[in-house]
Every structure is written in structure tokens, then in C-alpha cells.
Design brief:
Strand 2 and strand 3 form a beta hairpin. This protein is α/β, with parallel strands linked by helices and 405 residues long. The chain is built from 14 helices and 14 strands.
Amino acid sequence: MGFNETPLAERVCIGFFGRRNAGKSSLVNAVTGQELAVVSEVKGTTTDPVQKAMELLPLGPVLIIDTPGFDDEGDLGELRMRKTRQVLGKTDIAVLVVDGLEGLHETDEDLIRLFQQEKIPYLVAFNKSDLMPEEPEAGLEGIYVSAVTPKNIGPLKEKIASLARSGTPAPPLVSDLVGASDIAVLVVPIDSAAPKGRLILPQQQVIRDLLEADAIALVVKEHGLREALRKLGGKPRLVITDSQVFAKVSAETPRDVALTSFSILFARYKGLLADAVQGVQVMDQLKDGDTILISEGCTHHRQCDDIGTVKLPRWLRDYTGRQLDFAFTSGGEFPEDLSPYRLIIHCGGCMLNAREVLSRQKRARLQQVPITNYGIAIAHMQGILKRSLEVFPRISQEFEQDNAH
């Protein structure tokens, strides 16, 4: 991914839902202006969610997802419906496509209840209006469209954009922690896991956010931190480090300089920080035979010393002195049943949008399974979590109160 491309996790995710043969795929193609989805008269042509990152005017960078019919049948149909429900976990705006000739069906009502339950802004697109002798009243959340003529496709896009603009503004990543001309030192190891010729996504986004705040971003490798701090003369406002070198960076950063990690910044950005700080304390109560779920939001080639599948399990066994079992998920996969797990350790979630991270967090909370993330777990094991949270006074205070009890 190029430095100037909008990451998938930062795009507005628009999901198209509905029954088979309502014309979802045809409408997706009309909205996007390209043959994104396969169209057929046969019911159930879309067998898996199809997604496409693109620019959609007047909205900007979006991720469009066309889902299988929600009324699908049989074992394969149940699998398709489960995938559709997974898409709901990351959907920012839902478009319910209804066959305008038939009107709302019980399945459509079920989907509307799901949207409302998950607090997803939605609108109803009554498709095939070109075949209707007259249009009934569509209602506040509805619009009559035709994927064929294509009638009202422009107004449909405007309605989608309006729903997106009415959503909650994204929280800052790091810009609220620095002022203009403040120096932030970013400690970025370059190892076998780093992508050749570029920085990983969290590092790119933090640098961009610092520049937006008119701050100064100084990027060093872990072996160059001491010399960089010496040459600066004055103290930086903040040091941000990769979690894997947290202990070394903490030892070399003066105690009166704020220190945190990319992973902790992303935990706050995605809305996971408070639960993650509370959840990490379960690490001190683990017993032999407990199973830990380690979940990554992206899929990548596993290195021989991969942090998720190799380093974290080794560090956890060393820290707890317990014989622990581990399960692993990656990408869009996340278990619906979390009861087998004593603790979930999630990655920073840079490849997932905030809604999907919060959906996973909500599932963990409902099933009473503690959840934390890589950076917080590593800082806790290295005894520097308290220090790394001091940049967030409220969270830091709650952490100290919990540990005092």
C-alpha cells in the first residue's frame, strides 16, 4: 500500500444487504459505476461477501461490500448467512436492498432489527422501481431506485454520504498529545518482519497525525535512541516505540519524558484501551491449562520469530510460569463462541476499522472473557505499563486504583 493511499481501516465501510434476487449486486454495480459484483437471474449468485476499496463521490474513500442473500437455504446457505453477519461487525453504513415489487419481507425486517441492535445507520433502497406503475411512500429511511435505468442512484449516494457525515467523528491518534513544534521520537525497529522499502501501517499513520498537528516527527531505530536523545539537546515531548523493544526504550528514555507504544495508541484510537488495561490484569491469575486466544486483524506471512504465534506465547509462559495453551486467529476470523478462552490478546487492530474492533470487544464483554492487546500485554509483562499509560491521565488513574485494591 502506498503512503498516500487511504488504509482500508480508515475508509467508510458500506455494506449492501438483503434477500436473494433483490438486486443487491446490480445496485452495487450501479452505485460504484463498475462491474464489481456478478449479476445473474439465478437466486444466490453472490456466494461470499465481495468487497472493493474505491473513491465514491460525494463521500470519498470507501469500502463497498456486497453480501450473499440473507434468506439463503441449506448448510451452505447458513455458512453464507454467517459470513453476512460477520460483515455487520465492520459495517459503518448499511444499505438494505428490497425488491420494490414485493415490498418489505420478514427477512428484511429481521435485518432492520439487526442494524438497530448493532446501532448501524441504515437506509432502505427499494430496487426495480422502473418496473413499478407507481411508487408508494418510501419513508424517511427509504428511497426508490432502479439499478437498470439507473434511477435515483445519485440521490442514493447523497443519502449514504449524509449518513456517513452524521456519524461520530474519529478520535485523534496522537495529535492531542503534542503541540505545534513539539518533538515526538518514534522508535521503529527494522527487522525481518518489516516490509521491504516501507514502514508498517501504524507507523505511517502516527507520522501523518503528528504532521497534521504541526509537530516534529523524529524516526530512529532502537539502537539509535540514546544518541538521538543526546543530540536533541532538549527533551522531546513524547517517545513512541514498537512494543517489541519496549523494555530497552523505557530504560533509555528519561523518566520525565512521556513514553508509550504504537499499539497502546491504537488501542485508544479503536476504543479498546479501557477494557484492554482492565483485561491485562488477568495475566497474573492464569493457571495451568488455560487457553489464550491471540487474534490478529491482518493476514501476513509468518516469520520464524513471529510476534503473535511465537514471541507472545513464549513471553507469557516465561512471565506466568504456567503451562498455557494457545489458539490463533487472523484477518476477518474471530470466534463467535469465546467460552474456551481465559483471555484474548488482540493486535493493535490497524487493519480493522473501529466498528469491527468494538464488535469484537462487545462480544468478549457479553461473554465475560477479558480482552487486552499486544502492546498493553507486553508493557505489563515488562513492568512498564503504569509508565506507558501516564499520557492518558484518566486511564492511568483507573489503572492505579484497580491495582491498589
